[in-house]
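Re-running the complex after MR caught last week's input typo. The corrected sequence lines follow. Everything else is unchanged.
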Amino acid sequence: MYKDLEARVAVITGAGSGIGRACALRLSQEGCRLVLNDIDAASLEATRALLVAPDLAVGLVADIGAPETADELAALALQSFGALHVWVNNAALVRWGQVADCRNDDWDAVFRVTLDGAFYGIRSAIHAMRGNQGPDRGSVINIASGAALAGEEGLGAYGAAKAALVNLTRTTAVEHAREGIRCNVLLPGPIATPGMLAAATQAPGGVAGWEAQTVPGRMGQPEEIANAVCFLASSQASYINGASLSVDGGVSARTNSPRFNQTAGR
Ligand SMILES: NC(=O)c1ccc[n+]([C@@H]2O[C@H](COP(=O)([O-])OP(=O)(O)OC[C@H]3O[C@@H](n4cnc5c(N)ncnc54)[C@H](O)[C@@H]3O)[C@@H](O)[C@H]2O)c1
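Corrected-run output:
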């Protein structure tokens, strides 16, 4: 538990599923007031119903890729709870396709939600967080991906948008450090969310076969990302700014070279 998170106000985008939902549940357990966003109304309401304090959460069904949504979320936080302390840029869009075949509208759609949406969120968050007092005035947490670190077949647009998000995190961090506003980025590895499980089902051997290839031999759970989000949101992380934290069970620590001993580490 992070005592300082009690009564803090957090915005989470893409809160209707997977990692966003886990962040909402965890921050709710910590006593946060929540402003939840998703493009899907039913999913968002399902998340709200699972919270320990649904009455301390408000929702906005809207597309975070639309330029006005982030400002509306910030305004809703101020109007409903009087402040804004934490912003989790979690919503993203994946469109599979090789770079050579990537259509302009697919490229634009991925960047619009994954990068533009996060940029709008960062900007709105900073303006609202400037209204807070004290040394730790706000924490922005961007959810990127291990795909930001290396190439992955079929994920050209998504990986490029996530890599740009990592850089945007760093610039935001250095520009606002002296205002007491921090900005960090998480790079999840494979996490067992509905979308990821659906993709892994297509792999040879299904989910189990796919998991067996990973360094830890399993996918992460959404709660394991939410744990890192909570830490970065809290003042326990007051001197962590501009950091890129892989939460991937060690996946990104391994080279992709052919292995000499296939049984080592099992
Ligand atoms: N699951 C993984 O293995 C994994 C790995 C690396 C990074 N990530 C990142 O973690 C984040 C969450 O992923 P997830 O697996 O929980 O996804 P998910 O598909 O389970 O949930 C994403 C949520 O975002 C919402 N959403 C989509 N477009 C939106 C929009 N335009 N506006 C508002 N909401 C929108 C969806 O309705 C959904 O509820 C994403 O940024 C993703 O890139 C996930």
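None of the earlier attempt is carried over here. The first helix runs from residue 18 to 29. The pocket of nicotinamide-adenine-dinucleotide is lined by residues 13-14, 16-20, 37-40, 43, 63-65, 90-93, 113, 143, 145, 188, 190-191, 193-196 (CB under 6 Å).
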